[in-house]
Amino acid sequence: MHAREVLASSGHHRGAARDKLIDLLAAQDCALSALEIEDTLRRDGSVARASVYRALDLLHDHELVTRLELGDGVARYEPADPTGRHHHHHLICEQCGQLVPFDDPGLERSIHNLSRRLGFVINEHEVTLRGNCADCS
Amino acid sequence: MHAREVLASSGHHRGAARDKLIDLLAAQDCALSALEIEDTLRRDGSVARASVYRALDLLHDHELVTRLELGDGVARYEPADPTGRHHHHHLICEQCGQLVPFDDPGLERSIHNLSRRLGFVINEHEVTLRGNCADCS
DNA sequence: CTACCTGCAAATTTTTTGCATCCGG
DNA sequence: CCGGATGCAAAAAATTTGCAGGTAG
Lengths: 137, 137
Hints:
By secondary structure, chain A is an alpha+beta fold. Chain A has 2 domains: about 1-80, Arc Repressor Mutant, subunit A (Orthogonal Bundle), CATH 1.10.10; about 85-135, Dna Ligase, domain 1 (2-Layer Sandwich), CATH 3.30.1490. Chain A is built from 5 helices and 6 strands; from the N terminus they run H-H-E-H-H-E-E-E-E-H-E. Chain A has a 3-stranded antiparallel β-sheet. In chain A, strands 5-4-6 form a 3-stranded mixed β-sheet, with helices on one face. In chain A, helix 3 packs across helix 4 (about 50-60). The N and C termini of chain A lie far apart (about 35 Å). The structure holds a DNA duplex.
């Protein structure tokens, strides 16, 4: 993640808590909730819950993480992809509970088309499927 | 809404709170949060918050309402459409804050296609766009 | 009568804020 | 130094649960 540079160049200092959080998210490629992040970081030196939320907020403001709400009332975060190359969406398997990322060019094309048809300017979009993953079907 | 019949035929009694809630949702065609529903119902005779959540849960279990989480940490509910005829998705306008419903056959087709391509069984899907609505563009 | 429904209040869970202090540049 | 960054504890906000009646069928 070039997150640190982006933040530095907009006048933000560095700090232990956010630093660890950035590394954790960069390693993980799937979405984590704030509380999961807190638990993981707490093990390895104390990191306050508040710092986790503040760091996620900041990263989200700078579009360095994507915020997902998948229907269980918990927000999840994953590294945003500035190149758009790893852009993806999610299927929640109702059988095994897994969160399965996928991408689909046809879907992206449709969203682009409808944006023109309906006169919307779309800055962000999120698609969530619920059903059975390939393994559970 | 045929909600009352569905619930009756699965052994549920009727009650004042849920009854009013069903009417409210049926009238409204856009999504409301639990707390908005509570406020509205409270004005016209006391309805407890717990009853609102319990009724929404029950309706959701029977697929009579759709539950949306649009990114602000609040769940919203709208009547589900068993015919599929009023199936739609949402744009949140970042300018004026409005929730704008839309539908798009191309989008639906894409989702159907990717389901086959990836081997998913899709029971439900939800698309959320963030950007500017037609008026604000 | 019995099972379901309701209101109230209290408990949980997730997220936010206030404040004193620490630290990066 | 100064403007962030952090931890802690307390506060808010959203949702859930326990319980003692009430009511539909």
